[in-house]
Amino acid sequence: MTVHPEERELPSTPGRKLMLLPLVMVMFFTVSGGAYGLEDLVGSSGPGMALVLILITPLIWSLPTALMVAELSTAMPVSGGYYAWVKKALGPFWGFQEGWWSWITSFVDMAIYPVLFADYLNTLLVQQFDYHLLEENWLAHWLVTLVVIWTFAFVNIRGAKGVGSSSNLFGAFVLIPFGVMSVIGLFSLAQNPVAFWDPFVPEDSTLMGSFGTGLFVVMWNYLGWDGLSTVADEIHEPKRNFPRGLALTIPLVTLAYLLPVGAGLQASPDWAGWTAGYFPQVAAMVGGNWLGVWMAIGGLVSAAALFNALMLSISRLPYVMAEDGFLPDVITRRHKKYDTPYVAIIICAVVYSFFTLSAFSSLVVIDVIVYAASLMLEFAALIALRLNEPKMKRPVRVPGGWFGVALVTALPAGVLALALYSTYEEEGWRAIWMSGAAIATGPLLYPFLVRFVKKDRPTGAVEVEYE
Question: pTM for the complete prediction?
């Protein structure tokens, strides 16, 4: 008899589980990884608007999502996380869509980070040693991405605790240079005050145009608060530690963005020159060449750590869908020593190895739209469970009753609507239609998988406790 992950008893001792500090660091890397990638926000939206977006996006996007995640993850701390929430609230069809859409977005996401690692390494080798192998030889570049993918696939096979321990080290290495840069920059600002937020928006842009352009960039840097719900059964005391982790990580990510950007603008008044990969140069302006090199190496570490943390959460999706019969049963195999879904991890690693061969950066907009569809299903699950399971135990609740639920749903929905409009303005209908096609793969695949793969296998029930 197949034991569904929702039915597996949780050990009473920590064992190989994530404790609070490693949980915060893994959560940090599933969402952020440092201020790398925010340079385009400054260059496109202007210094003042960039700082405003960094401050308000956690309030209108991160906090509402985190409140929803806290309620559902503490009520149902099960393997599969958001897949299980949607399945419980809306049924197997929508549960499958949630899992499928979330998994296919990872094909683009997870291929980006090994490629970024190889690109950062190439920049370091060229600038410091005038060594051009990685930019001249595509095979060498690809082999570097494979080293990243399969190294951290092995770390993940060894279990969540190993991912957490490595994330602690990576977090220190990434955050310290940003911290040093922030302290030096803010001290210099105190000595020589300047209006580093000026101009508020570029001269050739309007207030709303600058806001809409920057919102898409900053949304990308605040995605992923639901990620670690998929490994809730691998977190020590998830009902207690998961919401605490969210409460600690939101301000950590916000400060990790706000302080370096402010310090960097003080030292680098040429804000229009801020483009992707510019932080090492800014750090060199603030603290000298040594800090710039450290910041560049931090980019390498951040890319690897993002892949490591995200592999932990994403690899559980094919596993739980296979547990429910939507994917081949072989994917449910667990490692005899580490009790991890090693087949699911290996399958993910193979897919990502293939996707690193091509330039998929143009699909990032589509990726965010598909992610948005899965996120809206999670908010729909929040509402449906409030209606259909009013007596379900909720150790953490979205405050404010139905008004609070409506508010935390409306804010992210409004942000997503604005981002979609901005996408249409910049990309036209092409990105919208391609996103719709990607979303349509879920409903089209579902009847085929039910008939030919799932057959008579039952869908696992999500057990909950009642008051």
Answer: 0.90
Distance (Å, whole) CA 112 – CA 119: 10
| Higher pLDDT among residues 29 and 40, named by residue | 29
The pLDDT tens digits for 217-273 are 888 889 899 999 999 989 999 999 999 999 999 999 999 999 999 999 988 878 888
CATH number of 5-454: 1.20.1740.10
Structural domain spans, the chain: 5-454
pLDDT tens column, 140-198: 999 999 999 999 999 999 999 999 999 999 999 999 999 999 999 989 988 888 888 99
